Amino acid sequence: MNREYTHALTLYFLTPLYDCVLKILGLGDAFYEQIISHIEPKDGDKILDVGTGTGNLAIAIKRKYPKTEVTGVDPDPKILKIARKKIKKSKIGIKIFKAAAQSLSFEDESFDFVVSSLVVHHIPRQVKKKAFLKMRRVLKENGTILIVDFGIPKNIFLYILVFILSLFEDVRPNMRGFIPHILKETGFRNIKEVENKFGIISFYKGKK
Known about the structure:
The protein is of the alpha/beta class and 208 residues long. The chain has a single domain (12-207), classed as Rossmann fold (3-Layer(aba) Sandwich).
């Protein structure tokens, strides 16, 4: 059966617990700060957060760079409801739309940056390539893409940890180096893994 996306934490009823689980895993404010440190936008730049979830990354970007235009998309209406409440409470201007990565309908070359955090492993395998092609299409020439997700384990302990995670989440392609491969295959250039302090997470950066 085809599906458009996998729910956060896999199961629909667990969606309200998403933020709590991330904090337990150590993926809180410091995690988002590290992601933001790799984009460095200028005033007026347009940033797309693909798979915005509860809006944490989009909100953090807008707070750090208030003169940028931040847009978040996610296919899950339940998690978007949480994001909209948080954005309203934050009193900052972020546009939110319901859309999956493989179904982006923005005009060509609409964004200076495309970022995506802990989303790629949720995209169904049969549409992963289409999702990356869509992200490239909406990115401006010489724009930057930053993909943050589970990657190739750096040591045996992390391999075991990610393997256990793979019993619940579809991270096995990532463990085999899927992300840098698909970035290259879909036409991105200058692809590199950038350093981060979160052991089981990898940060991949590239240019259009």
